[in-house]
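Quick note —
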Amino acid sequence: MTGLVASFGSGAMTNSIADIGLADVILVVGSNTTEAHPIVGIELKQAARRGARVIVVDPRRIRLVDHAETWLRVAPGTNVALVNAMMRVILDEGLADEAFITERTEGFEELASHLRSIDLEEASLTTGVPVDTIREAAIAYASAERASIVYSMGVTQHASGTGQVRAMANLAMLTGNVGRPGTGVNPLRGQNNVQGACDLACLPNCLPGYQSVTDRGALDRFCDYWETGAYLSEEPGLTVVEMMDAAATGKVKAMYIMGENPVISDPDQAHVRAAMDALDFLVVQDIFPTETTAYADVVLPAASYLEKEGTFTNTERRVQRVRRVVEPPGEALTDLEILGRLAEALGQRWKYTGPSDVMTEIAAVTPQYAGITYERLEREDGLQWPCPDESHPGTPVLHTEGFPRGKGVFAVVEHIPPPELPDGEYPFVMTTGRQLWNFHSETMTGRSAGLADLNPQNRVEIGPKDAERLGACQGDLLEVSSRRGTIRAAAHIVDDIAPGVVFVPFHFADSPANALTSGAHLDPFSKIPGLKVTAVNVRRVAEA
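Predicted structure written out below.
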């Protein structure tokens, strides 16, 4: 999000999910789409069947490669080197969209000067992708009438994640692939309402609608609306990883966690557990007991999505109604009821009678949502923001005539190697991610017997040459160690991963990949940790 805000002025998916199928070429970078975002994966597969040229950039031979024209098996952490090389080819071949660059962008000369210094042979050595393959992918993308970029956490979860996103934006603007159906730069969010949570200020530096907390005028407008004399600080808060660091050092004394299981999902599990132990007081609000609720002083049982009314905003900026199907079990309450009771206990008298009142407030203080009401959502199949008034139909494609910041800005982005590289003690690179049958920390999918039967345990994906060198056969128990911890899981020998690289899903509590990852190396802008590249050692410890 941070990178697209810097380049475009907005951090959201530029186009719609169905719109992806209109592209002639689809560049998929760092997204195991068919497993992590299977609905979007269906759109990609259907587009391929209709003749779209799908180009997959990923260290692993993910399932989407079966439907792709080209697979670029890029070394983990080298997306910037690849995209810069592609842009060098586009300039050399005269395929840049000069009219778009002149009319709608700034900073091109600085970028062009940098790109002229890119050596394709050196980029090939860095990325592991042959020069001819880089050239073919670049020409295919730039020659298309409509080309779309789809990316996910394989781009953002790096210490250089913001730079990687800005490189994607550079590529799209260089070729004029922004602001039209079938084009754009399209980040896929990690969960179903991540976009909505960010839109409505679940970020440490934003008010609803991405209005900055450092803007005194914006803070005052919110206070006026709430009719409060309270003084809101202009100082941004902490990100998740920064909160854990602060808790571990005693700077944060209490924490309230809603619908999150950081003991499994956050980097450096030992550090997270130490942070949880160091807190004076911890409240966890969730629908099931988790590894994190075990540390809580108070657990507040919450209603699931089928047990409450409200809205979700999905990855394509579409606001949709959520409707109660069954009553919450036992003592569980909806999030709004829980927060309302807490506010009342603290002496506040909130006036919300239900979620529709909250939506009315959202529309009043959030420009992108100003035209969205429950009445409209009941009549229409969701609305995509920005929707500035009640007569507006919503916006399927962003940036059709301009960017929120005025002109899109190119950024000179250099390839920065991952901060933790293999060495003699830790000779492998571990990358991590999701699998189709398991969602996130398995708070829900782990309780589904059918899904659990499909993929009941963690496995370490390793290439045949590396397995042979370790003396490991299919199913043998492997021990994977980093500078932070050790886990054990069965070997899964596959042909679709490069030598020196292993893949470990992060879902499983009994062998958590995040016991190995680091929270010490953060992107300097987004503060996202580099989860996708961890130096590890692997050894065989037992037969299957």
